[in-house]
């Protein structure tokens, strides 16, 4: 199955990461992008916009990415939205635990902006392909 670029919600507290992700996903990947700077905004935007996938930073102030993920999964309107985590601090053990939470994959920071859209598409096509 080939997944066409769709709508992605990028959630990261770092302005520069959101900006680079948006440019990379729109210009290189052909995705429609909505951004959120924190978990609470992400929850509202996910429910309102129903993105095809959420690219979610793990470490954020307030409610972190894992708490945001738990809240997304607990709401009927957002429970089925695929999630890919982004993090600068991932170990093999963390990734195994996160996959147990139902994420499609993990993208390590820093990431290559030129391949971000393709990696996201690959995660939707083959959930075990990211690392």
TrEMBL record:
Keywords: DNA-binding, Phosphoprotein, Transcription, Transcription regulation, Two-component regulatory system. GO terms for biological process: phosphorelay signal transduction system. It comes from the Bacteria. The keyword Lipoprotein does not apply. One of its GO terms (molecular function) is DNA binding. Pfam families: Response_reg. The modification 4-aspartylphosphate is found at residue 57. Residues 7-124 form the Response regulatory domain. The keyword DNA-binding applies. CDD domains: REC_RR468-like. InterPro entries: Bact_response_regulator, CheY-like_superfamily, Sig_transdc_resp-reg_receiver. PANTHER family: CHEY SUBFAMILY, STRESS RESPONSE REGULATOR PROTEIN 1. This is Two-component system response regulator. It comes from Serinibacter arcticus. The lineage of its organism: Bacteria, Bacillati, Actinomycetota, Actinomycetes, Micrococcales.
């Amino acid at each position: 199955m080939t997944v066409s670029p769709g709508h992605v919600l990028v959630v990261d507290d770092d302005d520069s990461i959101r900006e680079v992700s948006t440019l990379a996903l729109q210009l290189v990947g052909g995705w429609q992008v909505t951004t959120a700077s924190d978990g609470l905004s992400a929850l509202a935007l996910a429910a309102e916009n129903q993105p095809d996938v959420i690219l979610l930073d793990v470490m954020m102030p307030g409610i972190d990415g894992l708490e945001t993920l738990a809240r997304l999964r607990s709401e009927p309107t957002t429970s089925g939205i695929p999630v890919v985590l982004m993090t600068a601090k991932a170990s093999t053990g963390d990734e195994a635990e996160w996959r147990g939470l139902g994420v499609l994959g993990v993208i390590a920071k820093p990431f290559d902006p030129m391949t971000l859209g393709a990696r996201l598409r690959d995660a939707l096509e083959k959930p075990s392909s990211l690392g």
